Automatic annotation (TrEMBL):
It comes from Streptosporangium saharense. The lineage of its organism: Bacteria, Bacillati, Actinomycetota, Actinomycetes, Streptosporangiales. GO terms for molecular function: oxidoreductase activity; zinc ion binding. Its EC number is 1.1.1.-. InterPro entries: ADH-like_C, ADH-like_N, ADH_Zn_CS, ER, GroES-like_sf, NAD(P)-bd_dom_sf. Residues 10-343 form the Enoyl reductase (ER) domain. Gene3D superfamilies: Medium-chain alcohol dehydrogenases, catalytic domain, NAD(P)-binding Rossmann-like Domain. This is Alcohol dehydrogenase. Belongs to the zinc-containing alcohol dehydrogenase family.
């Protein structure tokens, strides 16, 4: 088969590799029908995730059709259309038993495209398939479903839920890429008073408005003054960091009110300063996290009922064989206007 192989920082190739095979009775093999590219893939290519070694097939977001099952798989069958979760879960370790699948101790967690071969390929092996792949109903299309492989549960769990968004809150989201836009969409489920989005790209701010942000700003438009004007001088109840840069994280800590929450979602490749000398006395809670995907079944149900509209996320479509060009488009959103790119089997 062909797959996108990481060859070291800044290098990748769509090339022939051996077909995946069942290596554990809990595995399934899928034909990859639809796949997308994540900002984390760009971090890998930038050298920010040193655990990813040359030779690894990239990708952790896909919809596919089961072509083979291991002997211990009971919930899936050949021919099933499934969503491959970005997180794999053994279901038995202490963390999995508490729903913290991202911290799985028995070979799960974020492994696809990271510690084992991923899904940016014509076929892929999914470990722990009964818990880590979701059978899809007919009414949910591939493009919509693949948005729930990573960005929707990540923004919802690590941003909205960890930030404890409540009705009437002022929520500030720094970064209007796919993760930030998914945070806008899922924060709106809790009826906040304001959703403020900060991003330097006007096109992405317009997208944020489409997803439900009522205030959009560039970093040059004095976000602190604007947020304080909306909140009687207090600051935001919840600030969600959706970029992964030191300066964006530090901006978040200036925008939050006393007793507020800063929820860091972005993947950081460089250290950021935590100004505890200013934050400690303000009772500010700062959270970080890797998604657990415990919310995926609920999000799929909401998607199926029409409560979530993820269609505007997809701005570009490619054939799977054109994945190297798709990476170029996705990595240059300032010129391409890309939010999420979707690649499909032709």
């Amino acid at each position: 088969m062909k797959a996108l192989v990481y060859e070291g920082p800044g290098r990748k190739t769509w090339t022939e590799v051996p077909d995946p095979v069942i290596t554990d009775p809990q595995d399934v093999i899928i034909q990859v029908d639809t796949v997308t590219i994540c900002g984390t893939d760009l971090h890998i290519l930038g050298g920010d995730v040193p655990e990813v070694k040359p030779g690894r097939i990239l990708g952790h977001e896909a919809v596919g059709t089961v072509t083979e099952t291991g002997g211990a798989v009971t919930e899936l069958a050949v021919g099933d259309r499934v969503l491959a979760s970005c997180i794999s879960a053994c279901g038995r370790c202490p963390y999995c038993r508490r729903g913290r699948y991202g911290q799985c101790l028995r070979g799960g967690g974020w492994i696809l495209g990271h510690l084992v071969n991923g899904v940016q390929a014509q076929y892929a092996r999914l470990p722990f398939a009964d818990l880590s792949a979701h059978r899809l109903p007919q009414e949910i299309g591939d493009e919509a479903a693949v948005m729930l492989a990573d960005i929707l549960p990540t923004s919802y769990e690590v941003g909205v839920l960890a930030g404890q968004v409540k009705p009437g809150d002022t929520v500030v989201i720094v970064g209007a890429g796919p993760i930030g836009l998914a945070a806008v969409l899922t924060a709106r489920l809790y009826s906040p008073a304001h959703v403020v989005v900060i991003d330097p790209a006007r096109a992405r701010l317009r997208a944020a408005e489409q997803f439900g942000a009522d205030v959009t700003l560039t970093p040059d438009e004095d976000p602190l003054a604007k947020v304080r004007s909306l909140t009687g001088g207090l600051g935001a109840d919840v600030v969600i960091e959706a970029v992964g840069l030191p300066e964006t994280f530090e901006l978040c800590t200036t925008l939050v009110r006393p007793c507020g929450h800063v929820a860091n979602v972005g993947v950081h490749g460089r250290p950021a300063t935590l100004h505890l000398e200013e934050l400690w006395i303000r009772d500010v809670t700062v959270t970080t996290g890797l998604v657990d995907t415990f919310s995926t079944p609920d999000l799929l149900a909401m998607l199926g009922r029409g409560q979530l509209d993820v269609a505007p996320m997809v701005t570009h479509r490619f054939a799977l064989d054109d994945i190297e060009h798709a990476y170029e488009v996705f990595a240059d959103p300032a010129h391409s206007g890309a939010l999420k790119v979707v690649l499909s089997r032709t």
